[in-house]
Structure formats: C-alpha cells, structure tokens
Design goal:
The chain is mainly α. The chain is built from 13 helices and no strands. The longest helix has 46 residues, at 122-167. The protein is elongated, with a radius of gyration of 26 Å.
Amino acid sequence: MQAIRILVAIVGALLAVITSLSVLRTLVMPGGRAGRLMKMVDKLSSQVFRVLVGSVRDYQRRNAILAFQAPLILAAMLGVWLVAYFVAFGLLLWPSTHALSGALRESGSSLLTLGFASTRSGGATVVDFIAGATGLIIVALQIAYLPTLYGAYNRRETEVTLVAVRAGRPAWGPELLARSRWAITTDELPEFFRQWERWAADVSESHASYPVLIRFRSQDPLANWLMALLAVMDGAALYHAVSPSETPIQARLAIQMGFRCMRQLADTIGLAYDPDPRNDAPTQLTYEEFEQGIDRLRAVEFPMERTPEEAWPHFRGWRVNYESIVYRMAFAIDAPPALWSGSRRGGLAATPPERPPNRRPEDPTGETIPPLPSPKRA
C-alpha cells in the first residue's frame, strides 16, 4: 500500500510541475502562446456563452452578456490552478498522512495559508511550506497581472474610440476614406496610418503575451478592436487600389503591420492560415460588396484614378493577406457585425456605420448635403 502511495505522490509532483509551467507561461513569460489549459477554459466558456446568447437577437444585449466572458476566464484560470495545486499537494502528502482525505485537508489548509492541519514529519512539513508559498505566489501573480492587462486594454481602446469618428460605428474601410473628405482631411491620413501602424505593433505584442485580451470588449457595443483594425487595413488597401499615386507610404506600412499583427495572434491562439497567399487568390468578399464601398467613395467625390474593375484585383491582392484570419476571429469573439467582416452566429445581418446628420444653422435637420470643400493648392 505504501508503494502505491509513493507512486501517487510522484504523480502529484508531476501535476504540480505541469501546473507551475502553465502559470509561468500565462502570467510571467512574455510573447508565449496560449497553453492547452487556457485553450480548454476558453473553449468551455465559449460554449457556455454561446448557449446564453443563442436566442438573443439584439446585439447590444448580446454584447452586454459577452462582456462577462473575459473576466470569467481569468477567474476560471485561477480556480483551475488552485484546484490542480490542491490535488497535487494532497497526493504528495498522502504517504505521510496515510489517509487521502487527511492529505487533501492538509493540502487545502497549507495552500490557502489557513494552517489548521499539519503532519509532524519532515517531508510533510516541507510540502506544507511549499504549498503555502505557492498559494501566496499564485494570488500575488494574478493581482500583478491585472494592472498589466488593463494598461494594455486602455492603450488599445483609446485608438478604437477615436476611429469611431473617422470610420463610423461599427467601423468600415470605405467610410474611413469617405470621411476624410469631412471629418479629417486626406493630408492627415499619413499621420493617422502611422499611428495605426504603431497601434498594431503594440496589440501584436500585448495580445500575444496575454491572449485573454482578445476577449475583452469595448464599452461601446458597436466599437471593437478587431473591426477597427479591419477598417484601417481595408481603408489603406482601398486607397492603394483606387488612387495609387496619391496613397501615402504610411498606408502600405499600416496594412503590413496589421496583417503581421493578425498572424501573430493567429499563431498565439492556434488558428491556421496561409502564410504566403497568391495575390489572385479568391476572397470571401465579393465584387458586388466591393462596389458598395466604391459607391460610398463616389458619393463624396473621392478622387479615384482607377475604375472599379481595375481597382478590384489590387484591393483583393492586399486583402488575401488578412481576410481569413479576421473573419474567423470575428466569428469566434462575436464581434459587431460590421460590413465586410464576414458572418456571425445566429445570422446577424451586417450593420452599416452610423452617420450623424450634419446640422448647420441654415439646415437644422442636417438633410442637405453641404458642398465639398475646394481642394488645397500646392
């Protein structure tokens, strides 16, 4: 019987080591991929929330429910680690206590630093000390983990909130270019794309290190970090496609950093993708949908050097680098159903971006479209 207890204690030691590696990978190691434990918790939580929102057709109510998913994943991870350590130290203590129930009782007492149960032997005392230190370290690491998470979240959301003025709610690439004729000027677009290049680099690093950030949602139900990045990449790609001689180099850099960010996150959570797609590969976005974007640009007289037929292959050549990843991730996190962003659970229809009326003293209803400003002279 004692031989069986010793064998079980070895299993407990292995479980403690595996759990410690999971903790280090999730809370300490930068740039790590989501481990099996986090993927399992994420998958289980997704199934639970899929049931909860399955019959909810209103997206704002749906978003309010899904907002609890990321915090619950964090709580579930802490709970799983503590339970795993509880079992591991209980198995390690079994040879000293000779009773599994007593070993588990002592494990819980030490792990939670309660100290109401202990065994007077050298080996058991060492395990008790290790268990007590482990409980304190796990809780301390989790507390230290939260400010880092929320710091990265706040940096991300600042630009996501700002892009709502420039690309609508929910964000859409053609809307970004169209509003450059009103909300911002085309002269400001290079700096805008430069900021989003840096934003994508920051998200690539922070969200790969802390994958649970992918699940954190914006306070505005129609705003979303993934839809904002998609709108910026689509806007830059569309600019290149229709007006190549006018497009700033910053737009090209923003696209490249954007799809590098998406590929980094895909590697982190285990999404498969083609690392080097052909520029003539098919896209899920159809030419008819592309024409809707062109119509939006025509409505504001956006300068275009190419016809839609000429621009389409160029736009598609950029989009094949990121479309499949964005569509699959948007479906997985139930992002707002923006235009050009793929399907959603429950068949929610795509929502065009909201356009506030342009109210002026001479037109208080905002129904009359004001004339475009005269182009600046060099």
